[in-house]
Hints:
The chain is α+β, with helices and mostly antiparallel strands. It contains ten helices and eleven strands.
Amino acid sequence: MNFPIPRARRMACSAIIALTLAAACAAQAQNAPAPEAPAQSQQQVEAEKTAAGQAAQKARIAGPTQIKLRDQGVLDLPDGFTFLPQPEAGRLMRAYGNYDSKELIGIVEPQSNDARWWATLDFLAAGYVKDDDAKNWNADELLTNLKEGTKSNNEDRAKRGFPAMEVTGWIEPPAYDAAAHRLVWSALVREIGAGGDEGSVNYNTYALGREGYFSLDLITNKAAIETDKSAARQMLGRISYSKGKAYEDFDASSDHVAEYGLAALVGGVALKKLGLLALGAAFVLKFAKIIAIAAIALVAGVRQFFVRAKKNAPPNS
Length: 317
């Protein structure tokens, strides 16, 4: 049985798919190519989507409960939310054409059928990220870097048959809480030529630690972000580091320091200085991880989730 998908959600998925492809290209450029797996038939693809969805339904953990985040910390999952751990989270993302990142810990989602957001939770063992640059960064400059990084990937997307994308502006400029060592920022990404309210919003939150950082990233649409971002902030506030793993536990005499500063978690500024292609890839990868939103369609029984909306089709409510 098919259910209608709101146009805003279809637009979000279009953005995710396009950005996912660009991220895959960036990753392949830095790694030796792996042997190609035999192409799957459409029937096999659909069967795996169904199987992955069924496995996810069984594996989801409902709050309130404590979710152990590897050896780094704990997520105090409240009532009304669920957590999908690995390996089911990775399987679900692979089933919908994404990759299973080694950094992925799981997927957070609301239990309410009315909510339309999903969030991934990762831990990146990058080392101790210095936050000195947060004192002097320029939000306009960071936004320019995001825009340029997105433009740089459009040529590749065009070759692969995907529409060009653009970053139109901040939904929420970068804000760093130096006392709590937490970073939040959000930007709007849409197809070039789309309406002002169309596009996907990736709400990015980070909790810095001694050996790296947690990244909790929520995807939604512009119309819902003012409501949905409270859930991302709530989850970020419920992440706590284990004893000895917190940012304050850093030991300069022995601990590894990350090769980039806090600004790199916004626009890839520091990574660009290292000669990497992260100006575009760091931004794109944030979107690539969120393909799990497609599970909404799976649970609803929708088989045409990735069919793009016609330009003249009226939005669904």
